[in-house]
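Dear colleague,

Thank you for sharing your sequence with our group. We've completed the structure prediction you requested, and as agreed, I am returning the results in plain text so they can be pasted directly into your records. Please verify that the sequence below matches your submission; if there's any discrepancy, let me know and we will rerun it promptly.
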Amino acid sequence: MEPSPKRSLSQKTQLTAPQTICLGFLAVILVGTVLLLLPFSRTDVAAEEGFGIAVVTALFTMTSGVCVTGLSVVDVGTYYSFWGQLILLSLIQVGALGYMTANTVLLLLIGRRMGLKSRVALQQTLDIANLGGVMPLLRSIIATTVLFQLTGIILLMTVFTPDYGLAQGLWLATFHSVNAFDNAGFSLFPTGLVAYVASPLLNGVVTLLIIFGGLGYQVIIELYLWLRHRLSGTACHREFSLHFKIVTSMTWMLLLFGMLMFLITEFNNPATLDNLDFSHKLLAAWFQSVTSRTAGFNTIDIGNMARSGLFLTAILMFIGASPGSTGGGVKTTTLRVLINCTKSALQGRDEVLCYQRKIPDSLILKAVGVILGSAVVVCTATFLVSFAQQNLEFGEILFEVVSAFATVGLSTGITAKLTIFSRLVIIVTMYIGRVGVLLLMLAFFGDPKPSVIDYPEENLLVG
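Please find the predicted structure tokens below.
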């Protein structure tokens, strides 16, 4: 028998799909950081900083942008020039689409075909079941993104143009529309969107962009196909997928619950809702409920919210958006799986059901892993920042860390007060939150090897 040939060096060093995705995000962040450090990207305000501080500031801003978070240690509108803002916005778009999606679009534009490895990596990025649906879904994603963002730009221009003129109004509309749909949350205004708390058009447009961006492309496409089917008047019945049912039902429940609770907790708070009439209180509570789970925009002063309101915001941030979307968090589907697990345990069932469908055991294990891994990351980052900065309150630190991990971007105002060490901790937290705990573990340790050993079962006390 001939000995098996040794693997070549290229085969040994070949990256797996998770490693490609994780390293791809890192590469985009580093390239963006270098671009933000160039003289034409910054204003005279930024030029006064030392080089070391400038590097950390650029790295923090670009990580927050590529990870579609929205946290910033500087005022983006005054610190960066138009070109710096354009670079940031461009890489926010790359981060929202995902490294593999953006890379695939670039390859298609220059006429290159996708290899099998690229298709597998893109499949993991888009979180779809089979390779056959990768390219149709990719084309639909690009079309959906352009349609929603362009619509948002046109509508927001009617809000900004009367105050800032056509050119500046167009840029403000573009920047905020892209950030809203991408769930990034960067604003060119020092106080966010507080000045527009009573604007129904801005509140309506921004929240709808955030909601659809947080639903995920597969849900949007499925909804489009259902509407096309209904409008065509064909007789065949189209059944929604389990994913669609869970995502949409959990989204609306969380949105309505959040609005009601924010209305209750902030109703008489003179620093947030108290000075608004009832209709504007409803509008502000609705906006806060929408933005807390994914985006990071604000129409009220987050730092002056009641403690109960801040705690509610942290919970909604940790839950986050839905799989396959531009938002972060542990995801709505993960929460629903765990809720149904609890329901089955209380009912004495040995299987987990949802909408008359059985949830696979592997999916339950994945949901548990996501929750536990996310909790470990949040606790570790909170401990490190708390240890490094005794001058900050624990609640403010926890809020900042959850916002970073869930890639939301809301802050009580302590971001600029963070030390270099704390900023680096937040940078790592944002990165982990964007690529995902499980994907990062797969990048480090590789896919689990199947075991041929069947171990015996044994009971133990739980709870």
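Summary note from our side: The first strand starts at residue 353 and ends at 354.

Kind regards,
the structure core
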